[in-house]
């Protein structure tokens, strides 16, 4: 399904609070924070000239977040960043002076962090980031996972010392349970989705994602003309779209949000013109995107900064994993998890449909940008789908 953005706010400037959250100054603060993180390195921008030629466009660039901060996902930029910011803010309040990242591991800050517990609901990647952030500062974490989260992903979170809490039902059920328990126990919720009265912390999570956009704009030969970004609750899509709108202004690219057809909460929100909750149905293989209600903050940004909305099917997601693992001649192999290549899957679906291709003005000069949002966060599942282990895929090098 394809839908142009017909909202009355389309192409308007972001609201001031959202513009501040995604501004250049805020993004610079995120990059300053990253200088103090272990395993920090800019993730690669991968060029796919073979696929570009095969699809009739000028260039395709993939920002590969599969090794971000050792966590295997772009989410490493969000949850941990929010946790650390919140600890430093609390330390600043208690000590009556501004506490910077340089003092993060001081005994005074650690003592304050030890009195704090951070909680969230997750499909896997966000919870891993929150748990890692809590461990880094000496705080506690409690991570709520729904019944669809694999045991491998639960173990990957638990290794950071998190208390793991299983919740029957969907991701949205785990969000509600996390909020309820956190209020009872005076824990701090660090969610990547927002709801009325709860926006600042999800805003910090989204702010963390701006680092990958800053890196990509430095790495890419010329700004993209078309961007396809996948969405669960919409945080990564809104962060990328909003920051590009601020940085590039009238020269910003045509931006398409890509949803799983089985959990198309942003597509249906765009169709309705206001946030809607879609009914639960059959689970999607795109587990990190299986969300049935959008983030209010993300929708507010996307209603202005997104140009179109597109859904992809289960086989689209599986096919793009295999395609990245077995690339066309001249392209490097890329390890992409079940949700990682969904933006690229959206582009491939768009360029194969003459009406959608024309609606998005995709042509031979188009420069396409997508984000591989995760690597093989469940290696066993990855091998089942692709037919090779992540290490085997990476050993292939360029095709």
From TrEMBL:
Cofactors (names): pyridoxal 5'-phosphate
Tryptophan synthase beta chain-like PALP domain boundaries: 38-359
Keyword presence, Ligase: no
GO molecular function, one term: diaminopropionate ammonia-lyase activity
Highest taxon listed in the record's lineage: Bacteria
InterPro entries: DiNH2opropionate_NH3_lyase, TrpB-like_PALP, TrpB-like_PALP_sf
Record Gene3D superfamilies: 3.40.50.1100
Keywords: Lyase, Pyridoxal phosphate
Enzyme Commission code(s) on record: 4.3.1.15
Lyase found in the keyword field: yes
PANTHER family: DIAMINOPROPIONATE AMMONIA-LYASE (PTHR42937:SF1), PTHR42937
NCBIfam families cross-referenced by the UniProt entry: diampropi_NH3ly (TIGR01747), PRK08206.1 (NF006058)
The protein, known as: Diaminopropionate ammonia-lyase
Organism field: Sinorhizobium kostiense
